[in-house]
Structures are given as C-alpha cells and as structure tokens.
C-alpha cells in the first residue's frame, strides 16, 4: 500500500511522482500544472477493446488513438538514407473491407517484430498524409494479443485523452494512474454538499475521479460524468448566486417614479398604447429603479419589440428623480440613430431650456469620437453640468474627461459588443453604484440566460407593437439558377416604384477577401469553408448596380464603417428622409436603424452570416406597416451544410426558435465565450442546451446555499472549487452580462 499523503487539488504536480520531464511537458503543451488540472483533464472518449475503430472518419493533422488490425507489413531498405522503412497497412474490420490506413516506421525493428499480419493493437500518433493517403508515422502502439490470453488486461475500456505532439494519450493516462494511486483509501474535499449527493445518489468525488479515468465498464464512466456535470452546474450557479447577493449589498440612489413628471408627460403624448409586455417590463424596471440597491437587469426581445421605448421610459424616471442616464451604443451610426429617434420621440420634452421646449424638459446630447472639438466641448459641458438628462455615445463616453453631474442609470445597447472593463469604466463615473440595464435583440434561450447571464434579472419582450408587418424570407440560390439575381434587382425596382425603399447588405467593404471592418463590428460566420467563393463588396456592387437596367435612375447610397463620419451621417439622413431609395451597406445597419419605409432587404452571400445576425438584419424592414421581404442570396449548392442556416431563417420569424437552432449548430465554447478568449471552456460535461434540468436544479440548490450561507463558511469545499475552477481567467465568459 502506498503511504504517500493524498495531494490537494490546488497543489502543483509532483516531479518526484510523475517525473520532471513529464511535469514540464504537461505544463508547456497542455497548460496542466496542478493536481486538480490533471485530474480534470478528462478522457474525450473510450475505446472498447473488442471493437475496431472506424477509419473513415479519422481527422487529418490531429492526435488520435485507435484500435485496428494489421492487414499487411512490408519492410524495405531506404534509398536516400540509412536503414529500413516499415510500411504497415491497418484495417478497421476483420475482413479488411471497411477502411485502411498506412502506418510507417523508420528503422522500426520492434514494430517489424511485433506487428505481424492479423495482430490487433492500439495505435496513437498524429495523422498526416502522403501521396493523398492518410498516414501515421512512427506512432506509439501496444498489442492486444488474443492468442495467449493477453486480452484480459485490455477488457476494460481504454480512455483516450486530449493530447499533443509532445505528450501522448498513453503518457497522460500513466501520469493520472500514478496520481490516482496516491488517492487510494483517501477522500478528497468534495464541493458537492453531502445532503445533495445523498439526495441525487451521486458518487463522491474521489470515487468519481477513479471511475472516470479507470472505468471497469463504459457505463461507470457515464455515471461519473453525470456527477461532474452536476458539480460544474453547481459551481457555476453558486458563483452567479453569490454575485446576485453581492449586488443586493451595494448601495444605490433610489429613483422612484415621480407623478406628473417627464415619464408621465411622455406617456400621455404617445400616439399609441403600450403593449402588455411593455407595461409589464416597464413595471419591473420602475420597481428596480426605486430600490436602494442597483438594478442589474437584462432586457431581451425580438427585433422591433420596443426595447428602446421601454429603456427610454426608465431613463425618464431617473431624470424625474434628479439623475442622468447614459446610453452606450457599439457604433457611431447606431449612436446617431438613437440620438435622432429619442430626440424626435420626446419632442418638446427633449428641448429643456430652449425656446418652445417643455418647461421641465431635459436635453439629449450625443458624444462620439468623430465630433468636432466645439461639438464635443458642448456635449461634455452638458453632461458635467447636469443640463443633459440623457447622454448617448459610443466608446467615447468611457474617456477620462467625460464627467456626469449625477449618473443614475447606464443603458448598454447590444451588450455583447462591450467588455466588462468598458462597462466598469462607465460605472466608475457615478458617485453611487448606478442602475444598469443591458439590452439585446438576439433572443436567448432560457437555459443560456440562466448559465451565461445568471447574475442578471431577465426581462423579455415577446410581443410586437401594433403595425409591425410580417416579413417573408426566401433563399435565392444562384447555383440552381444564376439568373435569379436579376429577378432580385427587378423586385427591388418594383418596391421603389411603389414608393418604398430597399437595403442591400454585403459581407465586406472593398477588394480583400476577408477585409476587417471593426467600425461595423462585422461578425462573419466562421463555419465550414464555403468553396473560397469571392465575397460581394459594397464598393464593387455599388458601382455595378449603376449598370443594371432594372435600376436605371434609382437614387443609390453607399454606407460602411470606414466612410468619413460626415459622409456616413449624410447618407443615413438621405435614406431616412427618402432621398436615397436603395442603400448598399455592410452590417453597420444591423441594429437600431429604423427606416419605416424600407420593405425589401437583399443579403448578398447570406451564408457568410450567422442565424442571429440574419434575423437581426431582416428586422430592419417591415417596420412601417407594409409587408417586408428578405432575399437571402447564396452561391452555395443546396446540399452545402451552410444552407441549413439559411433554411432555418427562411422557415420562421420566431427569434427564440432561431436562437435555439443557432446554438445547436454552433460549438458550446462559442456560447460561453471560451473561443473568443483563446482559452478552453470551463465546462466539460455540462451542455447548456441539452442539460436544462441539471442547470435548473443546480440553480435552485445554489440559491438556497447562498441564502443560508452567503460566505460559504459552512461549505469550504465549494468555496475552494470556486477558486479552482472559476478563477479570473476562466470566469471571463460569465462577465458577458
């Protein structure tokens, strides 16, 4: 029996136990430095010794582990260098009919002796290619000898670990085996409280590590995975519950409704009735703002559901209570649109101190990086003096010289475009903790909201205001019929002749294939390659459409993020007032742009956009009571995987249904933000789409734990797990809310 003391999960790997070289390579190639990190480097799959591995789906240029049978083995002397080359052909079935792969050994005397025809073995290595064939060169192997009873030791499932060129799956397994041997007859601190483990019949953590790495049967490994899945959910939800509790301890200035104030006057001036959803969410916001702790709420809703109106009423409530509101927008075009629409909507109420303005009115000012020095100075003075109740801006709001008289509410539009540091920079400009409202027009399934935005209260607008017309969406497949693009331009002319306006959206600005355009916050889909198709650019299309007979005499405009701000503003103004009938644009018009007379949108190379972005884009049309039409133009063949996204968008206008489909088609890491940060997702077994029940149970358990024990003094093991698994780096994806 090994008397070595079991290590703590946070302890560094022991070179005496694992070997100095192994510890070094684990850290350098896989980022594994501690006991917990090694134990949590779980197998990605298990090989059943009695089953050969299918070779048809083996990936190229990746570390693999597989079981195969030797079909042939031939050695020959090399002509250009000393020694022999052994060429082994392995197969994935006993008859050799399913698939084969070439395995090459240089001077492989041991391999030549052991890998005889008919031998079964486990092979591990990095796949490559030679003369168009998938190959393994000098792989590691171990025999599965059926003739002498040697199979007995291989009857248990063989774990296959995420590996690298520097460290193989077998080496990782040996290191984990040594570590597990030190845990024999010991018990690690378990972050899952004992009463919950008993209730759900979960194995303890030490047993779970043993079973997941050394299962007697694959079913045992699945039971261990279930236990770790719940643990992941509990740790995650406890972190979120603690954040919610911390917000409640912060002090904020109460901003209760003021009868007869600006908000009531604004409501009385509206030419329409608020939807029941807007009334309900408005009540939630009013109650939050009146509290003495900061509001921290996510407002989500369909495109055109009236989120901005709800946010404006909240801003007016804060102004009535003596405070100011800041609206942070991701682009100058959107900031200018918000300024224009809010000023227009408020009318005399936005002309405080001006001739003809309301006696108790306020001012709405815009602050962007491209403003002239004089305009900027005027806006800064209005914000600092308190004359401006509403300050709308881009990242320019975050600069050090921007000051507020009494910042009471921060509204962040399209919150996913901003990092935590940016929002915190704006928070720091308030004397007391400000209320925070973040908005998104990308509907979020409930499980994702609970997981990613779990520290926020969530309000959802599902109704569309009266007067919103339906939008018909059609796929224009140019591979099936190239002439359909001409019909698209003829359709545009029909809308223009009827007095309507048209958007044409392109995925890039100029000549380069994937030209970056941070000013537009361009989010091209990063899915499977699309046959290296030449993407349509706004600049080229703008020129070519001048020669399209169907569009002769049509007044066209060009819009993208790299235009001079003055030119950009003039173009948008021209489209707003009807002077421009057809606007050729990048995705700069994706959010917030509101031109009620626009009824047709043609999206070029639509397959290069994600589902949510396509849904956002088409939400720009049909806003004025006239039916809208969206044409998704693609050069891809009907059977191409990317056409599935287009089919989904064309089949429904339900944003929540589409967001669910979007998440199913994307990688889990993208949902949680791990790929954006360049790190691995903190979640290994918990899938936010598939495991709603686990998430809900863990959320309820976590809330009860924090309610009873806010500092987790009675649950130090759970506190330790929070530090271990959700450190600052891995917690980045939680900060998106």
Can you walk through the features of this model?
About 35% of the residues lie in helices and about 20% in strands. Helix 8 (about 220-250) packs across helix 24 and helix 9 (about 260-270) packs antiparallel against helix 11 (about 305-320). Mean pLDDT is about 85; it is low at about 1-5, about 145-155, about 515-530, about 665-680 and about 730-735. The strands form 4 sheets. The chain has a 7-stranded parallel beta sheet, sandwiched between helices. The chain has a 6-stranded parallel beta sheet with strand order 16-21-20-17-19-18, with helices on both faces. A 5-stranded mixed β-barrel has the order 2-3-4-6-5. The chain contains 25 helices and 21 strands. By secondary structure, the chain is of the alpha/beta class. Strand 20 (about 600-605), helix 19 and strand 21 (about 630-635) form a beta-alpha-beta unit.
Brief synopsis:
By secondary structure, this protein is α/β, with parallel strands linked by helices. 42% of the residues are buried.
Low-confidence stretches: 1-6, 147-154, 513-531, 667-681, 728-737
Give the overall pLDDT as a whole number.
83
Bulk shape = globular
Strand content: 15-25%
Helix content: 25-40%
Q: How would a crystallographer describe the biggest sheet?
A: 7 strands, parallel
Quaternary status of these chains? single chain
Q: How many helix segments? A: 25
- The number of strands is 21
Strand order of the largest sheet: 11-12-10-13-14-9-15
Which structural category fits the helices and strands? alpha/beta
